[in-house]
Amino acid sequence: MRSLIAAELLKLRHTRSAWIPPAAALIIAVIAVIAGAATAGHGGNPPLSPAALPGLLRGSGGQLVDGAVLLAWIVLSAGEFRHRTSVTTFLGQPRRLRVVAAKLAAAALTGAAVGLLAEALSAATSAVVLSAHHVPLHWAQPGVASALLAVPLLAALFGVLGASLGLLLRNTAAALGLALMWAFVIEGILPALIRAPGMARWLPEAAANAVLHGASATTAALSAGAAVAVLAGYTVVLAAVGAIATTRREIGTTTG
Fold this sequence. Notes:
Elements: H1 2-14, H2 16-39, H3 53-60, H4 62-82, H5 85-92, H6 96-132, H7 144-169, H8 172-193, H9 204-213, H10 224-248
Helix pairs in contact: 1-6, 2-3, 2-4, 2-6, 3-6, 3-7, 4-6, 4-7, 4-8, 6-7, 6-10, 7-9, 7-10, 9-10
């Protein structure tokens, strides 16, 4: 299994279109901290204080990193079928479920690594920015640890979602289109279409937002623990469907 996971990570390393989104997300994570500090105390934003640290860490990583990892693994997973390299992959290991498991494990590891790196860069940038403004750093304050854990966890789950969607659809354009449509259109209008506004908090993007920012007394968001369970449930279901589709269909075919 280790060799299969290593092979998947090697593919990511050599597929430029797959690693560009995470690399861009890491750069933006640093810029977001600087921008957040620059706008503090202006336009109704609270001034910089030690309490601003958790917000800087969450805002710099957050769902941008999740989306980047999702896109990266869609490109890598579905792209194998587009370029027909999947045939070589599955010929090398005829037990398809082992290959699928390796892809999902590599996606989770990649997501966690990108999330951790994003938070490390954010923490270093936050330390420099806050020190430059003579704001003391309190790493043990509430919210810091949860932010440092939430971003890698979410990125790992979104990596698995991306790999699973690529395995299921086998078409890079279709998988990317569906992911973007869901994030920017479908999830926003689905509760209204089915006349169930309370359903919104159970959808993937809302659950991820609840994990990252937590529930507040003024919103109907899920608690962080419940949101993790919901998002993990979506991940398990999509991974299972992608695995079943992979074992039952011809490897050399795509859906488009």
